[in-house]
Every structure is written in structure tokens, then in C-alpha cells.
């Protein structure tokens, strides 16, 4: 399963070199991830109310070509592995309607409860697992 | 009393127009404010452990000339009013060693406990009040 | 004339106090302003290709209540004054479908060419002026 | 060669989970990299005036433990490969005076002139090459 989200590039996303600052693609990955989970009916606020956090433990990114101010970007978020122990996603960022990948990457989140690694409770996992279908 | 703090401009502070994005001066005001309070021996972490928060309720800023990537900036934070009900500061931002003000502004914080406006407990106010001397 | 834009609150917009950091409302004001100008057919990229910049010279904001992670916010951007010398806007930010204003403010931009204050060329002003109707 | 830089965690670096947002470690890596190059006498502004840019093409990071508001962090930047074609660095972020690594990662920058990959001019490479000694 994959979910596509659009984001408009803001002035504050760009830098002196007139391109999106690379750290902001990492933020777009998160935006894509949150929307992927929303599509599964998984609300991060609901998880946080139950004391479940989902710290990110790894992120990797390659930057192929720059996005510019006011570009309308498509963030494609693709499930790689969704278990009770972790979530792994891949991301591809393009200009809307373009084939060319501007930036791509991957991330891994684990789950914690009271600051300790935990297994995702069944009620959330049920929904999460559908993301691999 | 005033406190001077220095900050180096980062790439991600600038935008496509090759200047510091105006929202980042608002962030520098906060950096100045935190250092002013540290100079008084006021730790915001200590206040937060006691359940005291200090939401900002107003900020005003004028931007006179741009700061650029890698500039070393001086944030001058000046106490205006420090009571048990609120903190008011003024700020002036210059390039280090320069007379010219690049950006200036003011802010007001109140104090809250459990989400309600409160008066600052004596143990913190004792330290805060010295800021007006 | 006013234009309403929606923005989803991201994790990186919030801080340790679990609310949107106040500097990010200033960024939302800009998002609202860019969308207001787009509604008039004014492309900031087109202005920049003609060497016209639009530095912000003043911003003011009041913060009434916090926005939280994942809130869907409405940014209402209202034209106050749109001349060949400057653009002034007011902003109101609410949760979508809510009456209550969470944050509000105003901003002033001037126009520059080659780093000097200029009057907005007629071809852009024609479109801008419609924003006051 | 390695260079150590310190950074204070700001409110706007943290998020609702009361920890530094992971994208901000990527920004700290850049801060470390800029200071490493400064230690070699390499000014990015001087390179940019000569039309040389240094886009980042890859970044990888692992997050082991959270940094918190007001922590004083040490960013250790270690040269991995510095050639006329690219710069590769590793980074380790710790609380000042602590052994434990909170976040670590690596990055690769290439060099471009007029938007095309180029080899770093000798006058800059002379200084850069000293970073591997």
C-alpha cells in the first residue's frame, strides 16, 4: 500500500541557495507517514493518549534534484514493514505530475511505553497491519 | 538589565531571497529571553517541573535590514516589565560589532498552572525581579 | 477581500509544551498571504523573475489559545491596504469549523528592486489592487 | 581531523513528545559541517561568491536517545573523505560531557558550478584537503 500527500513549498522551506533545505525533506517524510497512518484509521493522538510513542530510530535520504519555492510536491509513502515492533517506510518526492524523483528515503520507527521499547497493542496493530496489504 | 547573546545564522535560517526568514528573528527573541532568564538563575526546566508554563501572548517585530547566512548576530534582550503576572521584553538584533539594528521587537509572556493563568510563585519571582534592577 | 487556507499542524510545528510554537503562526501568516496573492493571480516567482522582492518590514501577533499536533487550522487572510508602496494584511487562525480565534496578527511588506524600495510595477499592481474590492 | 561544536537545544527544536525533533539533528550535522570547514579556513560565502555550490546528495542518521529542551549538545564532525568531487563526513551528537551518543549519522556533498557537477577549484581544495590529515 502507498499513500500520496501533496505539500506546497514555503519560503521558510528554502535557503540561500534558492532550493528546499535538505532537512525539510525529512520533515516531508514524516508528513507522508502521518497521512499514511491516517489512511489506515490510525490516529497518533489516540496512540499518545494510550501512552504509546513511536520514536524514529533511523532515517536515510538521497537528494537527486532541488525543489523550489512554491513547487507543489507529491510525497509518496510506501509501507516496507509494519510489525508490532516497528514501522518501516520508503518515500519518494516528486513535483506534482512529474516522473522524476527529487528526493527519496526511508525511515524506521519503534514503539515505546513509559520510555521503554514495547510491542504495539493489538487494537492499533489490527489497523496498522492493513497497510501491508 | 539587558543580556546579550550571540547566534550564527544557519543555512536553514535563510530563504530563497538569501536573507534570514523573518519568522526566525521571532525565534531569536526567544533565544535571547531564555538566556536573560538563565542570567537571573531562572531555569525554565525547573519552572516546568513545578507545573508552571509561560505562554507567549503577544509578539511585535520590525525588520530594518536583512541578516545573511553565516552572520554572527547579537541579540540584546532588555527587561521592560517583570511581575508575578507577566514578563515583557524588548529585543534588538545587530551584526556583532555593528551599531545598526537589523530587527527589533517586543514580547509578552504570562504564567499558567494547569492551563490557567496564575501568579508566579515567590521562589521564582525573587529571581525574576532582579532583572529590572 | 479575504482568502481562507487550511494547514495541518505537524509534529515539528509543536514544542515541549505540546502546543504550536508561536513563531510558526508567523509562518502561517505568510502561507495565508501567498495564497491570497495567488487568488489574485499574483505569482511571487513571476515578481522575483522581474527582480521585485517584497521584504516584510513589520509583523504583530497575539496568541489567545494553543493549537495542537494534527489540528486542521484555517488561516483567514484579510487585505487591509494594498498600494504600489506596500501590502498590509490581517490574519486570523482558527481550528477548522470553530469560531474561536487561536492567533491573530498583521503584517506589512514593502517592494524592492535591486535592494532599494520601489513602487510596484503597474502589471503587478493591476492584479494586487483587486484584493481590496 | 574532527571538530566539535556546541549547540543549545531551543524550544522550537523540540516537539509534542518533549524531545528534539529528529529533523533537527540533520540540521545540527550541517552546523557541525560548516564549523569543520571554517576550522580549515573554508568560507562557504567565499565559495558561493565564486559560483561554487555544495548540494547535499545523501544523509543517513540513527537516533539512540532523545535530547531535551535546554540541553547543551556537542556535535562532533569527523572527515571521512574530502576530494575534488565530494565531501563525506560522519557526525556524533552527545550531551556536553557525556559519553553516550544520542544521534549519529553521515552526509555526502558534491560540488556544482552553474547547476552542474564540477571539481572543486584548487584554491579551495588546498584548504579542504588538510581536513583529512
Structural class determined from secondary elements of chain A: alpha+beta
CATH superfamily of chain A: Hotdog Thioesterase
N-to-C order of helices and strands of chain A: EHHEEEEEEEH
Count of the domains of chain A: 1
- How helix-rich are the residues of chain A, as a percent range? 10-25%
**The CATH topology of chain A:** Thiol Ester Dehydrase, Chain A
Q: What global shape of chain A is seen? A: elongated
Tally of strands of chain A: 8
The biggest chain-chain interface is:
A-D, 22 and 22 residues
Radius of gyration over C-alpha positions of chain A, nearest whole angstrom: 15 Å
Estimated share of beta-strand residues of chain A: 35-45%
What does the largest sheet of chain A look like? 5 strands, antiparallel
Tell me which CATH architecture of chain A applies here: Roll
Strands side by side in the biggest sheet of chain A? 1-4-5-6-3
Uncertain ranges of chain A: none
Oligomeric category: homotetramer
Number of helices of chain A: 3
Roughly what is the average pLDDT of chain A, rounded to an integer? Answer: 97
Compute the separation of the termini of chain A in Å.
6 Å
CATH C-level class of chain A: Alpha Beta
Protein model, in words:
Four copies of one chain form a homotetramer. Chain A is an alpha+beta fold. Chain A has one domain: Hotdog Thioesterase (Thiol Ester Dehydrase, Chain A), CATH 3.10.129. Chain A has three helices and eight strands. Chain A has helices at residues 22-39, 44-49, 122-129, and strands at residues 2-8, 52-53, 56-63, 72-82, 86-95, 103-110, 112-113, 116-117. A five-stranded antiparallel beta sheet of chain A has the order 1-4-5-6-3, covered by helices on one side. A three-stranded antiparallel beta sheet of chain A has the order 2-7-8. In chain A, strand 7 (112-113) and strand 8 (116-117) form a beta hairpin. Chain A is elongated and about 45 Å long. Chain A starts with a strand and ends with a helix. The model of chain A has no long low-confidence stretch (mean pLDDT 97). Chains in contact: A-B, A-C, A-D, B-C, B-D, C-D. The interface between A and D is medium-sized, with 22 and 22 residues.
Amino acid at each position: 500500500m502507498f499513500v500520496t500527500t501533496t505539500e506546497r513549498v514555503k519560503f521558510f522551506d528554502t535557503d540561500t541557495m534558492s532550493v528546499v533545505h535538505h532537512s525539510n525533506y525529512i520533515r516531508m517524510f514524516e508528513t507522508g507517514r502521518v497521512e499514511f497512518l491516517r489512511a489506515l484509521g490510525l490516529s497518533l493522538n489516540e496512540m499518545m493518549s494510550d501512552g504509546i510513542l513511536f520514536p524514529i530510530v533511523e532515517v536515510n535520504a538521497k537528494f537527486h534534484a532541488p525543489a523550489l519555492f512554491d513547487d507543489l510536491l507529491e510525497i509518496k509513502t510506501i509501507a516496507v514493514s509494519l510489525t508490532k515492533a516497528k514501522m518501516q517506510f520508503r518515500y519518494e518526492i516528486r513535483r506534482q505530475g512529474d516522473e522524476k524523483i527529487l528526493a527519496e528515503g526511508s525511515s524506521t520507527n519503534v514503539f515505546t511505553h513509559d520510555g521503554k521499547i514495547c510491542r504495539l497493542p493489538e487494537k492499533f496493530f489490527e489497523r496498522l497491519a492493513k497497510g501491508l496489504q
